[in-house]
Amino acid sequence: MGIRFVTGNEGKAREADAYLEGVADVEQVAYDYTEVQSDSLEEIAGHGAQEAYEALEGADPVLVDDAGLFVDALGGFPGPYSAYVEDTVGVERLWRLVEAEDNRRAHFRTVLAYADGERVETFDGSVGGTIVAPRGEGGFGYDPIFEYNGQTMAEMSTEEKNAISHRGRALATFAEWLADAE
Ligand code: ITT
Ligand code: NA
């Protein structure tokens, strides 16, 4: 089956495509859905998926992915503001902010929302790690400063990252659901 991954972020689509190989054909579609004001990633992603499905021509289901980085010492910042903070403050300066803290624990969380015109379903995944000085050339976004088990996510291949990441975990739950739904 074909799935339209609605995102402006190539990295997300690349990871979903690799993960769902043999399960679904992932096509990246750029559509600027409304990000409703909410602290709930489920609500933001669910609304986005429903809106994108209605606005786009075609029958293939859509997936939306709403993610954030939550730093413990910063009260969960940047959280739902992660995209804005990446664009304004930047990844290097976020590291500088966390460098001063004793507790550098953080987690990534993502919510995938699926819409096929009949139903909207959400699947979430998260992973805990440590904020470190930037290392690595792979991945995207905050990957260079997020360390898991001795490696930053930017030092991992797509497959390695998918095996442990928030997105990989959400995609695993989604793939299980899809297999049961078919
Ligand atoms: P779309 O909304 O078009 O999907 P986006 O990049 O704006 O793309 P988000 O709002 O979900 O997506 O992303 C929040 C921020 O978190 C943004 O700065 C991303 O680069 C970053 N991010 C999301 N997933 C990530 C991951 O797996 N690794 C590193 N950074 C990630
Ligand atoms: Na976004």
Features:
182 residues; alpha/beta; Maf protein; 7-stranded mixed sheet; 6 helices; globular; binds inosine 5'-triphosphate; binds sodium ion
**Largest sheet features:** 7 strands, mixed
The proportion of residues in beta strands is 25-35%
CATH class category: Alpha Beta
Strand order of the largest sheet: 2-1-3-4-5-6-7
Strands, helices and their partners?
Elements lengths: L1 E5 L3 H10 L5 E5 L11 H15 L6 E10 L10 H7 L2 H9 L5 E11 L4 E12 L14 E3 L2 E2 L5 H7 L1 H16 L1
Parallel strand pairs: 1-2, 1-3
Antiparallel strand pairs: 3-4, 4-5, 5-6, 6-7
Helix pairs in contact: 1-5, 1-6, 5-6
The structure holds inosine 5'-triphosphate and sodium ion.
What can you see in these coordinates?
It is an enzyme of class 3 (hydrolase). It is a single chain. With 182 residues, this protein is α/β, with parallel strands linked by helices. The chain has one domain (2-181): Maf protein (Alpha-Beta Complex), CATH 3.90.950.10. It contains six helices and seven strands, in the order E-H-E-H-E-H-H-E-E-E-E-H-H. It has helices at 10-19, 41-55, 82-88, 91-99, 158-164, 166-181, and strands at residues 2-6, 25-29, 62-71, 105-115, 120-131, 146-148, 151-152. A seven-stranded mixed sheet has the order 2-1-3-4-5-6-7. Strand 6 (146-148) and strand 7 form a beta hairpin. Helix 1 (10-19) packs across helix 5 (158-164) and helix 1 (10-19) crosses helix 6. Residues 7-9, 12, 65-69, 82-83, 86, 108, 139-143, 153, 165, 167 line the site of inosine 5'-triphosphate (ITT).
